[in-house]
Design a protein that fits this description.
The structure holds 3 protein chains of 3 kinds.
Chain A lengths: L3 H29 L11 E6 L7 E7 L2 E9 L2 E6 L10 E3 L4 E4 L4 E3 L5 E3 L8 E7 L2 E6 L5
Antiparallel strand pairs in A: 1-10, 2-3, 3-4, 4-9, 5-6, 6-7, 7-8, 9-10
Chain B lengths: L4 H22 L6 H8 L12 H4 L5 H4 L8 H4 L15 H9 L2 H7 L7 H5 L3 H7 L8 H5 L19 H9 L2 H4 L8 H7 L1 H8 L8 H5 L9 H9 L3 H9 L1 H8 L4 H6 L29 H33 L4 H20 L5 H65 L1
Chain C lengths: L1 H16 L2 H9 L1 E3 L9 H20 L9 H10 L4 H28 L8 H23 L4 H14 L6 H9 L6 H33 L5 H5 L7 E3 H26 L22 H12 L3 E2 L2 E2 H17 L5 E2 L2 E2 L5 H21 L1
Antiparallel strand pairs in C: 1-2, 3-4, 5-6
Helix pairs in contact in C: 3-5, 5-6, 5-11, 6-7, 6-9, 7-8, 12-13, 12-14
């Protein structure tokens, strides 16, 4: 009798309390652990080794939710541009013969700096910065130079 | 006395605005007696604009019409000795403008990169040929460019800016009286304005969309011939043309004098093509040559069903993504996959112009894969969304346990108290 | 052994801080037991929810980034990438709504049990200020995710301010941080929500609680008239506190349930150029005012309808604040039946107009 109620309730309180605290602090600690992608916005992206990209070739790579066209127009020049045409959002392609960027939907043509050269595109393609770090090609958002 | 002088004052003021202001702009201090007189006698030409490109470049009336704008006396200023040519005859207008515009030595002083072939191009056009033959109803330079209010084509106010071209052409081509007996219809603008090109240009302001001149040419305006239709469409719709050109359909279409693109898509009233164009019905155009159960009929049925499947799967994936977005779950991968899927759908609809069911089928399977992946990703997100309820169950269990313990503790204390008091 | 440690710790503290009077106060504090005892818990629940807000709010601050280009993105990041981010965000949103709800319940229970009478006038006034602060908390917090609905609701909400005569436009500009609702408004609302309002609220709340501790729990007039032997009390500590704790636990479970099963939508990102979406509604606790403003004709006498409405609410709020001081003839308002009628009319007006707003 003396053991029963009092002790039982106290241990129940103990267990419940520990459980309750755990179910508050487990989420809190999980919350505070930084996620793998540590920032809300992707600002740079490693796309591969330099030798994976032959000269005069292009590759569409994914930059966050934006497709980006990475072009190695000759041995030393890498360019990265937003791959969606500014006219009606088709994906552009690199034309190896003309060394231009073409949108097949309405024959929009851009030069390798992203400028709209002919056809319907109303404005240039957004330019991304390409840097080579330790033989790795890295695409990053262009810094606004003030 | 004082009151009566006011109208004169206004006249003087407006005069000085009309004549002196442009001169100030040009840094010219010379008098222009043409404007003086024409304003005074209310004889200024219709649609005269001060911003006119020629006036801006420093040309006065005499630049085109000849004569001496400095002479006070009208007989002298408008005398033939002073080179006065007056109002040109309609037939002479191309040469009248061509005096300068066909002369590269002269033109490049003003605009180094301006073309100078307008006049010669004009005479190759349907308009030019008729004018040459003496038909004065046709369009010449000033019909489109105006005479005294000419603005560069880049200026949105210009009569030849893409936004305004359809209306400019319609001035004549929409005039039933003028077009009577020419065999031309007058409904082109109405048709065009409803078309996908017209809506894009006139309503959405997409300067990239073709106006009349982009298909018909401008100075060399002519209706495209049957064999050149696909070239014209193909100048923007590259792949469609490439595929069509090499297809069996394309080759036989040309040899049989069919109007290629136009045959299915129409001309001025081109609508956004519907997948239904592939759907054989009694009334469909394809039935002119094809019959039920021939190879083309079967190919079309296959293409139609694949495109419909691709499309509906894409729509479904899009709905799922919308759901995920609203639930606040992760949509980045789904969105990217959907972009692939949409791109595939565009390519698929272009590929139809090969009329090759096998290629279309392959492309469609690829695209359905993208949509399927997007849907699977969405399902995973929904699963995660629901999985949270599990965690809730565990936490609730702990909290309920604690609540029960607390409740029992309260009861116990109450009981002890009542024991003590009694 | 453990007892002795407890005792030694107490002695150590008592020597330095003289805890005896505090203990005495705790022992003496008691809560009357009668048929309306339940209402004594409402303030406590509001306090609990406020604490939940502080706790989850601090956690959200770890990831939230104010700014036109980052607010929505960081919320999306919080909801999709951060573990349990969704949980704290939803708890924060639900607990906010429940806090305002319980503050209202607390206020009306005070009206109906006539707990605001002398000597508790200042408690009433500070409580009413706390309610206004809670509503402003809600209004400013609503914009922070920078989604379509919150953007336009803020636009409408701040626009109403300009109806205040003379200073309305200045208030609007001050709130918006400019002529329009822009990124500047967002920074401003963020400042209100996480710095200014918490500071003021903590001070006023401290004052409110201090008064209650000093004066004890109010007794209803019927209870006061009971003969002493029939008056029943429970001790504040531990009886009332334990019951409080039990209720807080239950509320906690309810909040969790709502957060998991009825998550708040993030919606689509605000686009200042997009047309206003259908069905912009203020949060439910502004609905009765929003609905009233809609019903007032464009012109009342010589003033604009909206201005009239705003002035009406201003006057009403002041009158409501003055309820403890009001008199009818010689008698204080609280001693007449009018106070109950006033409370009922106000409550039913608010309920009915809120319902109309959602129909």
């Amino acid at each position: 009798m003396k053991y029963g109620r009092r002790e039982f309730i106290n241990s129940l309180l103990g267990f419940g309390g520990i459980g309750g605290l755990a179910s508050i602090f487990y989420p809190v600690f999980q919350f505070l652990i930084p996620p793998e992608i540590t920032e809300a916005k992707v600002s740079s992206l490693k796309v591969g080794r330099v030798d994976e990209f032959p000269a005069n070739s292009s590759k569409i790579v994914r930059f966050g939710r934006i497709p980006v066209i990475l072009i190695r127009s000759d041995r030393d020049t890498f360019k990265a541009l937003a791959a969606t045409c500014t006219h009606l959002d088709c994906i552009v392609q690199y034309n190896q013969d003309r060394k231009q960027i073409i949108c097949a939907c309405h024959n929009g043509v851009y030069d390798l700096s992203g400028n709209n050269v002919s056809g319907p595109p109303p404005k240039p393609l957004t330019v991304y910065t390409v840097s080579i770090i330790d033989e790795q090609v890295v695409i990053s958002e262009e810094k606004n130079i003030v | 006395m004082k009151l009566s002088s006011i109208p004169i004052l206004i006249k003087i003021l407006s005069l000085s605005l009309v004549c002196i202001f442009p001169m100030l702009l040009m840094g010219e201090t010379e008098v222009n007696t043409c404007v003086d007189c024409h304003v005074e006698n209310d004889l200024m030409p219709e649609f005269y604009l001060e911003e006119d490109v020629h006036q801006h470049a420093g040309m006065s009336c005499a630049g085109c019409h000849g004569g001496d704008p400095t002479a006070e006396d009208m007989d002298e200023s408008m005398s033939e000795e002073n080179g006065f040519v007056g109002i040109p005859e309609k037939q002479d207008i191309p040469a009248f403008c061509g005096k300068c515009h066909s002369n590269i030595e002269y033109m490049r002083v003003y605009q180094p990169r301006i073309p100078t072939d307008q006049e010669s191009q004009y005479y190759t056009s349907a308009h030019g040929k008729k004018l040459y033959a003496g038909d004065e109803r046709v369009a010449q330079c000033s019909s489109c460019h105006t005479a005294h209010g000419i603005l560069p084509a880049k200026d949105t106010r210009s009569s030849v800016h893409p936004f305004n071209i359809p209306a400019t052409c319609d001035q004549c081509h929409g005039d039933t009286k003028l077009m009577a007996g020419t065999g031309h219809g007058t409904n082109q603008l109405n048709d065009y304005a409803k078309s996908i090109h017209g809506v894009a240009l006139l309503e959405k302001g997409d300067v990239g969309a073709p106006a009349c001149n982009d298909c018909h040419g401008n100075h060399g305006a002519a209706p495209p011939g049957a064999e050149s239709v696909s070239h014209i469409c193909g100048s923007c719709h590259l792949n469609n043309f490439e595929y069509f050109k090499t297809s069996k359909m394309g080759q036989s279409s040309t040899s049989q004098e069919y109007h290629n693109c136009e045959q299915c898509h129409g001309n001025h009233a081109i609508m956004k093509p519907s997948d239904e164009l592939l759907n054989f019905t009694e009334s469909s155009l394809c039935m002119d040559c094809h019959s039920e159960d021939d190879a083309g009929y079967i190919a079309s049925a296959i293409m139609y069903s694949h495109i419909r499947e691709s499309d509906s799967l894409y729509q479904e994936a899009q709905l799922r993504m919308h759901d995920i977005q609203i639930k606040g779950m992760n949509d980045v991968d789904i969105q990217y996959m959907l972009k692939e899927s949409k791109q595939n759908l565009i390519q698929l609809r272009t590929l139809v112009h090969t009329f090759d069911a096998q290629q279309v089928t392959q492309k469609s399977i690829e695209g359905k894969g993208f949509s399927q992946q997007a849907i699977e990703l969405a399902q995973q997100e929904i699963k995660e969304f629901n999985g949270r309820r599990m965690g809730f169950g565990i936490a609730t269990l702990a909290f309920v346990l604690l609540a029960i313990a607390l409740y029992m503790k309260i009861k116990l204390i109450d009981k002890q108290k009542s024991n003590i008091s009694s | 052994m453990s007892k002795s440690i407890k005792q030694r710790a107490f002695v150590w503290l008592d020597e330095r801080f003289d805890l005896q009077p505090l203990l005495k106060m705790m022992d003496h504090k008691r809560v009357p037991i009668h048929s309306h005892t339940i209402w004594y818990y409402m303030g406590g629940v509001t306090l609990f929810l406020f604490l939940v807000q502080v706790f989850t709010g601090i956690l959200l601050l770890m990831y939230y980034r104010p700014g036109e280009d980052s607010a929505y993105e960081s919320m999306k990041f919080l909801l999709t990438e951060v573990k349990f981010g969704w949980l704290f965000r939803n708890v924060h949103a639900w607990s906010a709504n429940l806090m305002v709800l319980f503050a209202f319940i607390h206020m009306f229970s005070v009206i109906f049990t006539k707990a605001f009478v002398k000597p508790r006038e200042l408690t009433w006034i500070s409580g009413f200020i706390l309610l206004l602060l809670a509503m402003f908390f809600g209004f400013s917090g609503y914009l922070l995710p920078w989604n379509e609905l919150s953007f336009f609701a803020t636009k409408v909400g701040t626009d109403i301010m300009s109806a205040i005569p003379f200073i309305g436009d200045a208030i609007k500009t001050l709130l918006r941080g400019g002529e329009e609702v822009t990124g500047a408004t967002l920074s401003r609302f963020f400042g209100f929500h996480v710095a200014i309002l918490p500071l003021i609220t903590t001070l006023v709340l401290g004052f409110h609680l201090l008064l209650i501790q000093r004066q004890g729990i109010s007794e209803t007039s019927e209870f006061k008239l009971l003969p002493p032997e029939k008056k029943r009390y429970m001790s504040f500590f531990p009886d009332f506190i334990l019951r409080d704790g039990l209720l807080w636990l239950i509320i906690n479970i309810i909040v969790l349930y709502l957060a998991v099963f009825f998550p708040w939508e993030l919606g689509l990102k605000a686009d200042s150029l997009a047309p206003a979406p259908m069905g912009i509604k203020p949060e439910w606790y502004f609905m009765f005012m929003f609905e009233t403003l809609k019903m007032i004709p464009p012109h009342v006498w010589f003033i604009e309808g909206e201005t009239f409405g705003i002035l009406l609410f201003g006057v009403a709020a002041l009158l409501w604040l003055a309820v403890p001081f009001a008199r009818i003839g010689r008698k204080p308002l609280v001693e007449s039946k009018w106070i109950t009628i006033l409370g009922l009319v106000t409550l039913s007006y608010m309920v009915v107009f809120t319902i109309i707003g959602y129909l």
